[in-house]
Design goal:
about 130 residues; mainly alpha; Recoverin, domain 1; 2 strands; about 5% strand; PBP/GOBP; signal; PBP_GOBP_sf
Length: about 130
C-alpha cells in the first residue's frame, strides 16, 4: 500500500472540526489520542502545540508521535496508512478536497513506519495550516 498523509492530524485547537474534514466526535477522540501519545513520547506542550501548525517540529524532536496517533486512531496499519480508513473519518462533503491533498502528498516516503507517518503528516500540515 502506498503511503498517504495522516488525515487524522486535521485539527488546530482554535479551528472547528468542519474546517478540517472530521466530525466533532472524531476531533474529540483525536485530541485524547494526541495527549496520550504526547505523554508516551515525552512531548512537551510546546511541541504538541507546534505539531498542530505549519511549523511542525522536526522528526528528531517528535519522532514516532504522529505514528502513535495514527495507529491509535486506526488509520495506520503495518508500514503505511490505510486510505480507506482515512476516508471513513472524513466528512463526505470534504472528501474531494482531501483526495487532492492525498495525491499531492502520496509521493512522500520515509524509510521507517515512523518516518512515513511523520513525513505524510508534515506534507499535510504544509497544506492545511497555510489555508
Amino acid at each position: 500500500m502506498k503511503p498517504i498523509i495522516a488525515i487524522t492530524f486535521l485539527l488546530l485547537a482554535a479551528c472547528s472540526a468542519r474546517d478540517y474534514g472530521m466530525s466533532k466526535e472524531n476531533v474529540e477522540l483525536f485530541k485524547k489520542i494526541q495527549i496520550e501519545c504526547a505523554k508516551s513520547f515525552n512531548i512537551s506542550d510546546d511541541l504538541l502545540r507546534r505539531s498542530n501548525t505549519v511549523n511542525v517540529p522536526e522528526f528528531k524532536e517528535i519522532g514516532c508521535f504522529p505514528h502513535c496517533a495514527a495507529q491509535k486512531l486506526g488509520i495506520f496499519e503495518g508500514n503505511d496508512y490505510n486510505p480507506d480508513k482515512i476516508r471513513n473519518i472524513i466528512l463526505p462533503e470534504k472528501r474531494v478536497m482531501f483526495e487532492n491533498v492525498i495525491k499531492k502528498c502520496i509521493v512522500v516516503r520515509g524509510d521507517t513506519a515512523c518516518e512515513r507517518a511523520y513525513d505524510g503528516y508534515k506534507c499535510y500540515a504544509n497544506f492545511a495550516y497555510k489555508n
